[in-house]
């Protein structure tokens, strides 16, 4: 695959917004010939200067207006690195121009936004993809293989997903990022959105895109002096006919974590981190542990994969972690979680 990529023109990438700190990953990425950043849209000149000083981005490639950037630079795909609320506007600008879009997780702030994005994607035949860090974990894909391809755990009975850290302000997120990440409109919530989306994404994937039957959530703000407008502690319970999922997103963990536990009828599996796993089947005397290799290109990180998707070298199945189908269910779960917490009731689908 890497040899094929080196023989073709790089995919023309546009960047919409620089306020999401995950954009550092694009600029820190080793130079490769699979993508080329042709333009950026960012109105904050202070932010542009910071990235110019840090990474040497070309100011001539930066436009204050998204539409102007799209028309002048003609990207094939745009990666959105602004607020979650802005995702809809990015798709509204790109879709009529036939430009594909990849947003940072989650897909949208609400089902209202998500449905509009899906309608535009279908109408103009573009990809609208969602990027999660955990999509590129070999541990999670080994879990899926053991559950679905090898049936080593039996039918799933419970999935528990933990995600988060000790707080975005506490870990040093930029002020531009914090300005919208802690805004209930621009982010759609606090930890429930920022980290609850990971568990919703993974559980939906394991359940083959089946929506849950019910959603029950408890949201709290344990640090109101830091996060007065949004929750910083979220627990979401999703139920299925024969299984239950528990999603724990937090800005209060003592450490950073992105791990998952799967319990089946005959065994369990723990994705400890990106590459470390633990598992045990009924009858085993001891627990097995393994350290996996990273995933192979182009499935090891988002932009290699994105380039292959845009070139139609690989397809995105409906049950892909980045797919529109999966992430519509994710937003549905997050919407229901906020409603459940607001009303103190279980939301039934």
How many strands appear in the DSSP assignment?
Answer: 15
Find the CATH superfamily of the largest domain. Answer: Dihydrodipicolinate Reductase, domain 2
Strand order of the largest sheet: 14-13-12-11-7-10-9-8-15
Overall 3D shape: globular
**Estimated structural class:** alpha/beta
CATH architecture of the largest domain: 2-Layer Sandwich
- N-end to C-end Cα span: 42 Å
User: How can the largest sheet be summarized?
Assistant: 9 strands, mixed
CATH topology of the largest domain: Dihydrodipicolinate Reductase, domain 2
- Mean pLDDT, all residues: 96
Q: In percent terms, what proportion of residues is strand? A: 15-25%
Cα-based radius of gyration, to the nearest Å? 20 Å
* H/E topology pattern: HEHEHEHEHEHEHEHHHEEEEEEEHHE
Tally the helices: 12
- Name the helicity range: 25-40%
Low-pLDDT segments: 1-6
The total tally of domains equals 2
Oligomeric nature of the chains: single chain
* CATH class annotation of the largest domain: Alpha Beta
């Amino acid at each position: 695959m890497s040899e094929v990529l080196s023989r073709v023109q790089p995919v023309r990438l546009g960047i919409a917004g620089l306020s999401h700190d995950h954009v550092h990953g694009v600029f820190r990425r080793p130079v490769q010939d699979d993508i080329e950043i042709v333009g950026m849209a960012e109105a904050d000149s202070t932010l542009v200067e910071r990235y110019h000083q840090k990474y040497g981005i070309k100011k001539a490639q930066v436009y204050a207006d998204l539409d102007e950037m799209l028309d002048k630079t003609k990207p094939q795909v745009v990666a959105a690195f602004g607020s979650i609320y802005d995702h809809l506007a990015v798709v509204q600008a790109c879709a009529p121009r036939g430009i594909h879009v990849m947003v940072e997780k989650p897909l949208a702030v609400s089902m209202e936004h998500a449905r509009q994005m899906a309608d535009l994607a279908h109408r103009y035949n573009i990809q609208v993809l969602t990027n999660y860090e955990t999509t590129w974990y070999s541990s999670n894909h080994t879990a899926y293989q053991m559950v679905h391809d090898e049936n080593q755990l039996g039918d799933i009975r419970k999935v528990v997903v933990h995600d988060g850290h000790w707080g975005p302000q506490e870990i040093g997120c930029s002020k531009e990022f914090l300005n919208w990440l802690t805004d209930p409109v621009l982010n759609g919530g606090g930890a429930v959105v920022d980290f609850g989306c990971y568990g919703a994404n993974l559980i939906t994937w394991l359940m083959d895109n089946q929506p849950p039957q019910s959603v029950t959530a408890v949201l709290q703000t344990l640090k109101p002096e830091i996060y007065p407008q949004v929750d910083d502690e979220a627990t979401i319970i999703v139920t299925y006919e024969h299984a239950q999922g528990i999603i724990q997103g937090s800005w209060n963990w003592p450490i950073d974590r992105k791990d998952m536990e799967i319990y089946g009828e005959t065994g369990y599996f723990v994705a400890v981190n990106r590459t470390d796993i633990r598992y045990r089947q009924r009858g085993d005397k001891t627990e097995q542990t393994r350290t996996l290799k990273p995933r192979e290109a182009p499935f090891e990180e988002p932009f290699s994969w994105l380039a292959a998707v845009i070139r139609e070298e690989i397809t995105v199945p409906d049950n892909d972690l980045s797919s529109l189908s999966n992430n519509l269910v994710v937003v549905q779960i997050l919407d229901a979680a906020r409603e459940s917490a607001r009303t103190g009731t279980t939301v039934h689908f």
